[in-house]
Amino acid sequence: MEKDKQQPNAKELDEETLFIVSQTFKALSDPTRIRILHLLFQGEHSVNEIAEKLSLLQSTVSHQLRFLKNLRLVKFRREGTTLFYSCDDEHVMDLLKQTIEHANHH
User: Residues in domain HTH arsR-type (predicted)?
Assistant: First the structure.
């Protein structure tokens, strides 16, 4: 009888899920994107603030934020002509926080 019970995650991953998971790990494999996400843990920031605090070019920040936004890892709100970015996926943020803690736990 026990053999008939199927594990909840035992089914094969579909192509869309595989793509999203691989793209998420791709997003988290880039040091600049990790730095941006780490800064956004602390709260909402504009593109200019991110560029200034991380000593990056505004064009670099915008490019990386676009990548992260396409994966729904960050979201933005507009105030006048300024875009303010914040984290948009607690699951991925928790994963990144735990990985940072792991790296700091010698």
Answer: 13-106
Residues whose CB falls within 8 Å of the CB of residue 59, separated by 6 or more in sequence, listed in order = none
How do residues 64-78 score in pLDDT, each as one tens digit? 999 999 999 999 999
pLDDT in tens, 91-105: 888 998 999 999 998
- Other Cβ atoms less than 10 A from the Cβ of 64: the count is 20
The answer to whether residues 70 and 76 touch, using CB atoms and an 8 Å cutoff, is no
pTM: 0.82
Q: Which domains does the chain show, CATH number per domain?
A: 30-104 (1.10.10.10)
